[in-house]
Every structure is written in C-alpha cells, then in structure tokens.
Input
Amino acid sequence: MVEFTLDGRPATASEGELLVHAAARQGVFIPTLCHDDKLEPYGGCRMCVVDVEGAPRPMPACATRVAPGMVVSTNGSTTDFRRTLTEMLLTEHLDPNPGGRPNELTDLAQELGAEAPFILPDAKREPYEDRNKLMGYEPDSCILCNRCVRYTQEVMQCSALSLEGRGGEARIVPTWGKSWLDTECELCGGCLSVCPTGALHEKFLTGADVEESALTKVKTTCTFCGVGCQLDLNVDPATDRIVKVTSEPHYVSNEGNLCVKGRFSFNFVHHPDRLTEPLVRGEDGELHPATWEQALQVAADGIKGVIARHGTQAVGFLASARLTNEENYLIQKLARNGVGTNSVHSCEAT
Amino acid sequence: MIGSNTTEAHPVLALRIKKAVRNGATLVVADPRKIWLTKLAKRHLQLRPGTDVWLLNAMMHTILTEGLQDEDFIRDHTEDFDAVREVVMRYTPEEAEKVTGVPAEAIRATAREYASERHAGIFYTLGITEHACGVDNIWSLANLVLMTGHLGYESTGLNALRGQNNVQGLNDSGANPTYLPGYQSVDDPEIRAKFASVWGGEVPATPGYRLDQMISGLHDGRIKALYLIGENPAQTEPNVHHVEEGLGNLEFLISQDLFLNETSRDHANVVFPASSFAEKDGTFTNTERRVNLVRTAVPPPGNARVDREIVIAMAKALGADWPEYPDAESVWNELAGLAPNWAGITYARLEQEGIQWPCVDSDDPGTPFLHAPRPARPNGRGKFFPVEWQPPIEQPDSEYPLVLSTGRTLYHYNSATMTMREAGILDKQEDPFFEISPEDASNLGLADGDWARLVSRRGELEARAQIGDRVYPGLVWMALHFAQARVNWLTHDVGDPLIGTPEYKVSAVRVERVPA
Ligand code: SF4
Ligand code: SF4
Ligand code: SF4
Ligand code: FES
Output
C-alpha cells in the first residue's frame, strides 16, 4: 500500500499503480485520450497531465506510477492546459463522426467547454480509401493518438498498421501503403474498437452511419467458437437489423476483444437465403412452402410411420453445437421421452 | 500448445497466449504445420501427423529417467502409475526422433521445461482428437499432466479448447446416447427413474447409437428416420459420398436449420425454418465450462421460429405430454433441477456474468479449477492409462504419396453456411485452397495460386495451391469449409474405436496439375 496526497487529501494506491487508476478509485477522474487499459502506459497526448510537487513539469497520470509521499494536484494549472490542448486538437478535427462511433474528444470538449478557436488552414487531409468492406479510416478525424497501432503491436502482435508521415502529413495507414487486405491484418476490428474518435470505423452493408448512441445494445454470447466472447449486438430499432457488434473491456473471458467472426460475421442473420417458411417435399420430389400446421403434421406422421414399421430404434436425432443448452436439452428429451430412443448425438461431439 | 492452431480457431483466447508470452511465459508449439504461434514460440516441435503418442511418451521417458516427476502428487493423488512407467521406458527420445521427425534434444528440453515449471499448462484441440487414436492422445497428455502434478491450480491442467461455440453445452445437456443431462448414465436405473418421474413416461434403457453408428446405420438399415437440427452431415462428415448414399436410403428426414444445405436440399422430407443465436434466449457454455446468457436481439425472419418452439411443437404433434415452457428460462430450470452440477445456476445469477460449473447451490460461486483440490474422480485419484502408439490407419504409398491433414481457418466456420454469406470476409478467403510445401509444388510444377486436383481413394476435388513453408514436404493441408470442394470427399471414416471420432487429420492423397 502506498500513501500519497491527491488534491490536498490523503489517498492510497497499490504498489506500482498508475496515478490515473488510483485517482479514479478516490473519485477523481482525470481525462485521458491516448490511454487505454488494454495497452501499456504510453503518455503520448498529454491530456491527462497533473502537477506533481517537485517535478520540473506536469506529469501524465496515465504513465506515472504513484510513489510514496507524492503530492499530486489535478485541478491547478493543468485544467487550463487541458482545455487549450483540446482546443488545439479540435482545430484539426474536421469530421467528428465519420462512422457513427462515440467520440471521446468531442465529449471531452463539451465537458471542458472547449471549442475550436479557428480551423487550421491546412487541416484538410488527403482522404483514405481501402478496398476492404469492413473497416474505414478518416484522416480528418484522426488525432494521431496511436492507440490503434499500439493495439496491433501489443494485443494482436501484428504489423498491419503504422503511423506514417510527419506533421500535417501524418496519418495511420496499413503498413507499406497497402490495403488492409494485403497486410497481416486479420480483420479483427480491435484497432477500431480502441480508437477514441471513430476515425477508424466500421463500414456498413446497409444503414450506413447510424449513430451508435441511437442503437439498442443487446448483450449476448458469440455463436462461433468455444471462447464464448461476450458481445453487444447493436440493433437499429427502426429496421430490427443488427448494424454492428461491439464489446466492453469489463466483459469476462474476452475483455472487450473480438475476432473477425464475432465482430463482423453477423450479416448472415439477415441474409435473403434464410429460410422463412416450412418446406414439405411433394409428390413431384420438390420442396414446397407449407404452413406450420401442415409441416408439423407431415413430420409427426413421418416419424410415427417409421416407428410403426421399424420400431423406435430406427429413429435418430442429431443435435448441434450451434444451439443453446436449453434447445439441446429439449431435443434429447424429444428423442428419449417423445420417441423413446437414446440415439441422440451430434457431428460436433468433440 | 499441441494440435491447436489457436490464432485461427480460438483467436481471442490466442490473445491471452500472446500476452502471456509478452509477459515472459515460455511457449512451445507442437504441430505439423508452422502455424502463426510458432513465431512467438521458443520451440516448434514439427511432428508428423499422427505421431503425438510417440512425442508424449518420449517426453515422459525423459521426465522419468531424469527424475523430474512429482512423486508426492503421484503417491497421494493418482493410481496405476507403474503401468505407464513400464510403457514409456520403451519410448526413447532417439527412437521418437525417427518416428516423429522432432529432434531428440528438443523433446528432452521441452520435457525438462514442462516438468520443472510449476505454472505449466497444456492446451489442445481437434488436432489431437480427430485421429483414429484420438482418445489415446488424450490419455497420453493426461499421463503427462498427472506425472508432473500440473493440475488443480492456476495456469496448469489439460485444457481442451472446444471447437464450436456450444460443444461443451451440447454434451452437458445430454445430446449424447450414453448420458442423460449432466453426464448421468442412461445405464443407471435410478437415474432413469429420476428423469422419468420429472418427465412422465419411461426413459428407454436400450443403448442409443453414436453418430458414427447412425451413419453406418443408414447403410445397414438400422436407421430409417433422422431429425437433423442445425446439422449438415453431407458436408462435415468424413467420406461424404458414402454419407450421401446413406441419406438416400432413409424413409424420412427432417431438417431444422437457418438455410437449405446440401443435406436438406436433396434428402429432407420436411424442412423447418429455425433461428440464429441473435433471435433467441438461452445459454451457451464455453470452453471454460462457463455458462453464458444468449439474448434475443432481433425477431426471426418471416415465419421462421425459435428452435425451442419447434421442438416443443414436434413433441406435441407426436403426442408427448410436456409442460408449457413459456420461455427458455423454464427449460433451464428443469435441466438444472435434474443435473446436480448445474443446480446453483439461475438466469438471475447469469444476468451479471457467466458461471463456471460445477455450481451445486445458490451459494456456490462456481468452479474455475475442476480438479481442485484433487482429481475429480470418485476416489479422488487421477488414473494413469498406458498408451502404445498406433500408426495412422492410412499411410502414404506410391500411388497416394502425400499426407493430407485438414482443419479450420480463421475466416470461416465449419461448413460455412453462415460465414460464406459475409461479403467483407470473403474478400480475404473465397476460393478453396490447400497448403503445399515449395518442394512438393516444384516437383509437380505448381505455381502459387494454380488450380490443382487432390485425389484420394475416396474422391477428388480441385483447389488452389497455396505454396509456403507452413507445411513440410510430404504434407498437404486443407480447410473443410468449402462446399464446392469438400475436403471430406477425400477423408476416410474409420474412427477411434472407443468414441467414433473420425480421423480427419490423416489421409493419403496425390496432387495433380490441372491442365490450364
Ligand atoms: S483489424 Fe485487427 S488485425 Fe487488422 S489491423 Fe486492426 S487490430 Fe490489426
Ligand atoms: S485512428 Fe484513432 S486510434 Fe488511431 S491514431 Fe487516429 S485517433 Fe488514434
Ligand atoms: S469473437 Fe471470435 S474468439 Fe470470440 S467467441 Fe466469437 S469466434 Fe470465438
Ligand atoms: S492519456 Fe495520458 S498522455 Fe495521453
């Protein structure tokens, strides 16, 4: 346990704890921009700076570990500094909302009462187009915080994204100026999930650019592999369609990370090939649409016929790892209790 | 990591491994292919497919000859150790090198590192189980774990990474011919009586058929009707042509699925339009045994229905007397009431976050480590089970000189009826492809991206050659997702004698150029 002073009051931190976390536990929220709990301390944007007694200059709270006896002030000169820094960032932030994702910079500006005093004459950047259909990048929104690049390096450990160019030319691009599709990128969308401004954003098949705040989030479990990632299906209430998938850092098992399937493979839900009517095979050997009553009748008669001719052991059930526990339970109950056979298994028994 | 291409099969779990390595953990990968994780690995044991038992027995040989085993654990928590000692002493690392292709020194070094590190865990997936000797492989791994006492505490154990989202729950909830829900044996009359009293009506005592027995039953007439729910055996089962013939013999087939698939289009008498995960409530159980809620986000399309309602309607149509089951929760409550290890799990508790079973009552927080404080067997002792190596059933020969191994890729999901409909993902991987070494490719005159024909004793298909050093000379690898080039046309269906898991991982093939 480390004791220190925070805004004139005694406070405690655990050994080696970052100032930003220790302060948050005491109810003092220091704004951050380039910081992300998934990533290693970085201290690049200076938004979180605080005064530390004896230090020659303000220190970034996101990259400073609490030391015993430290005297920290979060509400002195640094408050003005933060507003000025925010205003400077806004002078180049031409597109606050390219893909409808939340924007930490504009939220912060609102909180601090900061507005762009002017727009830099050379703020407009060369647009970026990428032929992949899942992710886009808007240089006019990017604040070069490097969160996305650090995510690829630290979490994915790939080299798909880089920060290239200097000054007004600086931007994030797939490495070597290729498309995302030609890099090591696995389309996990992790880089966009950590982007604070939405400069990296989802591209949409339909209903482009719906504000994330207007979507209904339904927390559920991924349907693709045994990791069981927890995710939010973001549904457009106007169309009842899933628009995108997000996840939160506090979700157990995946800590807000997803892979390409969990994040981007949801359009199958709304695909036109989905079956929408029961089908029954007719005399002509073809499948024809039927009502539920008819289909259930034919199905039940078919099973009863086989039982009558060959006994219950002649009926088999194959359940599925795609289905819920409840559904699989009912299926084995149908086999054992409804038909009278223990022959219930699955192709995915391992 | 053994037989697990984690970055592709379990990408988010792989992030944990990447992080651990970044924090200083030692990673050893045993896999026939140079998979992505080998980049981070301290050592890659590039064993020949189907030689896992040799590798593992030789590791145990090293541990025992060097005295690195955990004598206390073996004495207090296991049984039948001597039987394993006797067998593995015949598996020297030098002999293992000849069979597996892995240098003896690498085997020794891995054995030493594993045995002497307290926090050492083993992870495996289908690369280990989809062999005719799949159960042997797991016994071997279990022997290794028991011998070194790596069990029942953090960062240890023998961790099966479940392939699909709810494989764990599928078995837990009793979709299994030998077990009623909660791994309660159908053979036990008392258990049957317990279920019968809740369900009303007898639970049949006659043993049911496993998947492989049902498939062979299609041919010998034991099976006359099948009810397939979310299953597409005409693509995912080995030796597909054989399966398709069998389906043609059925008198009646019901398919309940999201899409028409190869099986239902040709063979189903009735097709029920079912629901995706986004359209239903319920639970999935992940590979950590964590029961997680699934929640309805959107309604099913058109007249499609949630699977729960369809199965209930079928029960009614067949004359069964079932309760109303107004929602998924009511089904869960019946299941949890019958299966003691789930008894403490309620939807209300899951609302916050998932719970790892066993969870026996409402005060039980769940069980992160299954074998703590001691192995979870009735006598509290882990059982050693000596394993002798069995060569893969099909060996390469002059006519079929290459070994074909199969698996999954990042971008698709099994028969890919879902992922093949994602335009953005198809950009990354659309055409069927197979991996081949530069040496074999140049012998055949194949260039990267060329179409080639793969031929086995059972069938053939065409796919693009992807040339690279992920596979070694003599090995080709192909994913099973492609409907127009189903790799299971090539594989054989002789499975593990105990549980019938087919040997997807090793077949003999030859590759031919396709004249342009
Ligand atoms: S999508 Fe994932 S893999 Fe691709 S660049 Fe972003 S973080 Fe890296
Ligand atoms: S794209 Fe987003 S995360 Fe990356 S540097 Fe720009 S603002 Fe930061
Ligand atoms: S998001 Fe990816 S890793 Fe997570 S459960 Fe889904 S498929 Fe598995
Ligand atoms: S948030 Fe601390 S320096 Fe950027």
Summary: The domain at 2-76 of chain A is CATH 3.10.20.740 (Ubiquitin-like (UB roll)). Chain A touches chain B through 114 residues (CB under 8 Å).
